[in-house]
Design goal:
The chain is α+β, with helices and mostly antiparallel strands. The protein has three domains: 158 residues, no CATH class; 144 residues, Heat Shock Protein 90 (2-Layer Sandwich); 89 residues, Beta-lactamase Inhibitory Protein, Chain:B, domain 1 (2-Layer Sandwich). The chain is 60% helix and 11% strand. It has a five-stranded mixed beta sheet with strand order 1-2-3-5-4. It has a three-stranded antiparallel beta sheet with strand order 6-7-8, with no helix packed on it. A hairpin with a 3-residue loop joins strand 2 and strand 3. Helix 1 runs antiparallel to helix 2 and helix 2 runs antiparallel to helix 3. The protein starts with a helix and ends with a helix.
Length: 518
C-alpha cells in the first residue's frame, strides 16, 4: 500500500512538472523546440522524480542542466517550476549544505560563461540569471531546509519532553516517599522511644526498643539522602497527591503514636477547598515529622484557622529542637516554602521562643485560580512542539524579509531592464514599410529604435547577403511572447540592401516552406 501510494505521488508530481514543458511552446511563451528536445526534457524530469528521495542533489542537478540548456539566464517557463520544486526537495532531504551551495555556484558560473559566449546583451541576461537563481533556487532550498529543521526540532523536543516528564515523575515519587515514609518512620521511632522509657519493661526489651528507635532514625536519614539524589533542583513545586486523611485525623494519629500534640481549630469557613486542605495537610505532616525527629519529647501545638479568604496553619513545638537549625534549611521545608509561595501564600519557619515554629497562610482565591488553570490546561491542546521562540521567529522573519528585499531589487531591476530593451528595440510596422532599398543608414536611423534585439532569431532568418551588416528589430512591444522580427541589412556603403520579416517561432517552419516555393 505504501509503495502504491508513493508511485501515485510520483506520477502526479511528474505530470504537474511536465505540463509546462508540453504547453509553454504551444501557447507562444517560449521559443519552439523540437519534439526530441521536449521528449528529452520530460524523460529527464521523470528520472529526477524517481530519484528525488535517494539522490535529491542528482535530481536537482539534472533539472538545472535542462534549464541552462534551454536558457543561459535560467529563466524558462518550461523548467522553472521543476527547478524550484527540486530545489525545495534538495533542502528537505539533503543533510549537508556544502554540496547544494557548490551546485548553486556551479550553476552561476556555467550560466555566466554561456551568457558571455552566446548572449547579445550580457548585462541584462546576467541580472536575470542572478534573480532567477535567487528566487527560483536559493529561496525554495532555504524553505526546504527550514521545513526539515522544524521537523527535526519537533522530534528532538518530543524526546526532551518525554525525558522531562520521566524526571518530573521521578521527582514526584521521591517527594511522596519523603513526605509519607519519612513521617511514618518518624512515628515508628517515636513509638519505639516511648516503649523504651516504659518503667515496667524488661532490660532486654528496653535494649530492643532502643535499637528499633535507632534503626528507624537511621532509615529516615538514609531515605532523606536518597530522595535528595532523586530530586531536581529546578523542578519547582512537586504536584500534590490526594491526601487520604484530614488534618485533624493526621494530628490524632500522630498523638496515638506518642507525640504530645494538641489540636486547635478556629474559623467559620466550611466547606473549604480540597486543594487548600491538601496543602495544609502537607505543611502539618512535614512539621510534625521534624518535631518527632528532632524534638521527640517536646509538646506540639497544631492550630488551624479557616476563613473565607484563606487558611492559616501554625505548628509550634514548645521545647528546643536538637537539630532545628538544620531542619529549617532542609529540603522538606524548602519544598513547603516553594509550594505555599507558589500559590500566593506566606510561609515562615524558624526558632520561636525556646522551640520552633512553622506558619503558613494559603489564600483560597489564588489556590482556586491555580486549580482552575490546571484543570483548563488538561483540556486545552498542547502547544505544538518545535515552535520556534519569539526571538528565533524574529530572526527568521528578518532574514526572510531581507532576502526578499534584496531579491525584489534584483528581480525588479532585471525586469525593468528586460522591458526597456524589448520596448526600445521595437520598430513600428509602418516605419518598416516606409523604408526602401537603397536608403542610407543615417536617414534610416531617424525611424529606427534606440536599440537592436539582444537575442536575434538568426536560426529562423533567411541567409543574409554577403558583406552586409544586418540588424534585428522587434515588430511588437509585447513582452513574454514570441513576436515577429524585422531584419535590415546594410552594405559597406551603409545603404539598405535587404529587408526581411522573420516570423514568430511557432510559424517558422511554414514560412520557410513558402519561401522555398517562391
Amino acid at each position: 500500500m505504501e509503495r502504491r501510494r508513493r508511485r501515485a505521488t510520483d506520477a502526479l508530481l511528474w505530470a504537474a512538472l511536465a505540463l509546462p514543458v508540453a504547453t509553454a511552446d504551444r501557447i507562444g511563451l517560449n521559443e519552439p523546440r523540437t519534439p526530441a528536445e521536449q521528449l528529452t526534457g520530460t524523460a529527464t524530469l521523470a528520472a529526477a522524480v524517481a530519484i528525488r528521495r535517494k539522490s535529491p542533489l542528482t535530481a536537482f542537478a539534472a533539472t538545472a542542466a535542462l534549464s541552462l540548456a534551454s536558457e543561459p539566464a535560467l529563466l524558462t517557463l518550461s523548467y522553472g517550476p521543476a527547478l524550484a520544486t527540486f530545489a525545495l526537495l534538495l533542502g528537505l532531504h539533503a543533510q549537508q549544505t556544502r554540496p547544494a551551495l557548490t551546485a548553486f555556484g556551479a550553476i552561476a558560473v556555467i550560466g555566466t560563461l554561456q551568457i558571455a559566449v552566446r548572449g547579445a546583451d550580457p548585462s541584462a541576461q546576467w541580472l536575470v540569471l542572478i534573480a532567477t537563481l535567487h528566487f527560483g533556487v536559493v529561496f525554495p532550498w532555504l524553505g526546504g531546509r527550514y521545513w526539515r529543521q522544524s521537523r527535526q526540532n519537533v522530534e528532538r523536543e518530543q524526546r526532551i519532553a518525554e525525558d522531562r516528564a520521566r524526571l518530573r515523575e521521578r521527582a514526584r515519587i521521591a517527594q511522596d516517599m519523603h513526605d509519607s515514609l519519612g513521617h511514618e518512620l518518624s512515628l515508628i521511632a517515636l513509638r519505639a522511644g516511648a516503649l523504651q522509657l516504659a518503667p515496667d519493661l524488661a532490660e532486654h526489651h528496653r535494649k530492643a526498643a532502643a535499637d528499633l528507635r535507632e534503626a528507624a532514625s537511621d532509615a529516615t536519614e538514609r531515605l532523606h539522602r536518597i530522595i535528595g539524589l532523586l530530586r531536581e533542583d529546578d523542578d519547582g513545586p512537586t504536584p500534590l497527591t490526594p491526601a487520604n486523611e484530614t488534618v485533624e485525623e493526621l494530628v490524632a494519629r500522630t498523638a496515638e503514636s506518642g507525640l504530645r500534640v494538641r489540636w486547635e481549630a478556629t474559623g467559620t469557613a466550611d466547606p473549604y477547598s480540597p486543594l487548600v486542605e491538601r496543602i495544609v495537610h502537607r505543611v502539618v505532616r512535614e512539621a510534625l515529622t521534624n518535631a518527632a525527629r528532632h524534638a521527640p519529647g517536646a509538646a506540639v501545638t497544631v492550630a488551624v484557622r479557616r476563613e473565607a479568604d484563606g487558611t492559616e496553619v501554625s505548628v509550634v513545638n514548645e521545647a528546643a529542637a536538637t537539630e532545628a537549625g538544620s531542619s529549617s534549611g532542609g529540603s522538606g521545608l524548602l519544598g513547603l516554602r516553594t509550594l505555599v509561595e507558589g500559590v500566593g501564600g506566606r510561609f515562615e519557619a524558624g526558632p520561636y521562643g525556646e522551640g520552633f515554629r512553622v506558619v503558613a497562610y494559603v489564600p483560597a482565591a489564588s489556590v482556586a485560580l491555580v486549580a482552575s488553570g490546571e484543570e483548563a490546561a488538561e483540556h486545552l491542546p498542547p502547544r505544538p512542539l518545535g515552535t520556534p521562540s519569539p526571538r528565533a521567529r524574529r530572526r527568521v522573519v528578518v532574514s526572510l524579509v531581507g532576502a526578499v528585499a534584496v531579491g525584489a531589487v534584483i528581480l525588479g531591476g532585471a525586469f525593468a531592464w528586460y522591458a526597456y530593451t524589448k520596448t526600445h528595440s521595437a520598430l513600428k510596422p509602418a516605419d518598416y514599410a516606409a523604408l526602401r532599398l537603397g536608403t542610407p543608414l543615417d536617414e534610416a536611423e531617424r525611424v529606427l529604435p534606440d536599440r537592436t534585439v539582444s537575442d536575434p532569431p538568426v536560426e529562423r532568418a533567411p541567409a543574409a547577403p554577403k558583406g552586409t551588416d544586418c540588424r534585428y528589430y522587434r515588430a511588437s512591444s509585447e513582452l513574454f511572447v514570441s513576436v515577429e522580427h524585422f531584419r535590415l541589412c546594410f552594405d559597406d556603403r551603409e545603404r539598405l540592401v535587404a529587408k526581411d520579416v522573420v516570423p514568430r517561432g511557432d510559424t517558422a517552419g511554414q514560412t520557410r516552406k513558402e519561401g522555398k516555393e517562391r
